[in-house]
Amino acid sequence: MSGQTLTDRIAAAQYSLTGSEVSRAVCKATTHEQTAPKKKHLEYLIQATQETNVNVPQMADTLMERVGNASWVVVFKALITTHHLMVHGNERFLQFLASRNTLFNLSNFLDKTGSHGA
User: Fold this and answer.
1) Mutual orientation of helices 21-29 and 39-50 as an angle, nearest 10°?
2) What is the CATH number of the domain that holds 84?
């Protein structure tokens, strides 16, 4: 788990305890680590969009929670993950996002971490 913050590990553990593997994968794809989302997490999420028993609204809501994070790294990775799922995931995911017009309002975003991209 190199590079993951304690906050990332706790969030992933909380989702594991609640039984939401999809939310856990979203959390692991959108860590504070300044690297791209891991391919294995993106592939898991893509596959999850194909499953009929997966709660797509919950997946989207978890991504939107991550977009609301104070860290620019987490927000950026959440947007990358969302884009990846829009392009490669099931049409259900894209249709759900299209049905909600307030998901990506970043007008009040302010990075409070103090770290800047290179």
Assistant:
1) 140
2) 1.25.40.90
CA distances from 73 to 35, 88, 98, 111, 115 (A): 9, 22, 25, 9, 9
Cα(114)–Cα(68) distance, integer angstroms: 16
Domain residues for the domain of 65 are 6-98
Alpha helices for the chain (secondary structure H): 6-17, 21-29, 39-50, 56-67, 72-88, 91-98
Give the pLDDT of the chain (118 residues) as one tens digit per residue.
456 777 777 776 766 656 688 999 999 999 999 999 999 999 999 999 999 999 999 999 999 999 988 889 999 999 999 999 999 999 999 999 999 876 677 777 777 766 555 4
Q: Is residue 16 part of a domain?
A: yes
State the DSSP code for 31.
Answer: -
Euclidean distance between CA atoms 12 and 41, whole angstroms:
12
